[in-house]
Design brief:
alpha+beta; Alpha-Beta Plaits; 7 helices; 2 domains
Length: 178
């Protein structure tokens, strides 16, 4: 079965450094097959038997190999495709908006009060929609200018999270569906 894992917060501002070649080797050492990485932010597509606890296995292996904790989100191909299909913003023009539309995968489904608390941080030009365990963001002025950072979402929603722009999401979908 094909899986995608997204590592939270590696290789950002010189923190939690993991080279992608090393990460690929770590996954292969866990018995995963056809391991492919995409860019330096910890996106890994791999084949594995179903029914295993891949998230915990990967997190433990990273802790052992690197000495730091990293939250890992793991999806099967169909789950990831459903996340992209559910985008409330319709078809995204990757050239114009590929870095302005984002998806944040959450470790747990947040409660409504927590979601409501985010509204005050949203700029009037921005859109924010929470569906199950995914936050969809549209930041027309760029993700670097929004207050709705991954860290703020984690704090306000009381979950662990990892964010990817739509261009990366579409590339990962392409890799999963090969």
């Amino acid at each position: 079965m094909k899986y995608l894992s997204l590592l939270r917060g590696i290789n950002v501002a010189g923190q939690k450094k993991i080279k992608m070649a090393e990460l690929k080797a770590l996954y292969e050492g866990l018995g995963f097959a056809d391991v492919q990485t995409y860019i330096q932010s910890g996106n890994v597509v791999f084949e594995a038997d179903s029914g295993l606890k891949h998230q915990a296995l990967i997190e433990q292996a990273i802790q052992k190999a690197y000495g730091f904790d990293v939250h890992v989100s793991v999806c099967i191909k169909d789950e990831f495709n459903a996340i992209l299909e559910a985008c409330p913003f319709g078809e995204v023009d990757l050239a114009a908006d590929g870095t302005k539309v984002l998806a944040t995968l959450l470790s747990d489904e947040p409660d409504q009060d927590a979601i409501d608390s985010l509204v005050s941080f949203k700029h009037e030009s921005e859109s924010l929609v929470v569906l199950n365990k995914v936050v969809y963001l549209r930041c027309p002025n760029g993700y670097g200018k929004t207050k709705l950072s991954n860290s703020l979402l984690e704090k306000k929603l009381k979950v662990q999270a990892t964010t990817r722009n739509w261009r990366s999401m579409k590339k990962l979908q392409e890799m999963l569906n090969e």
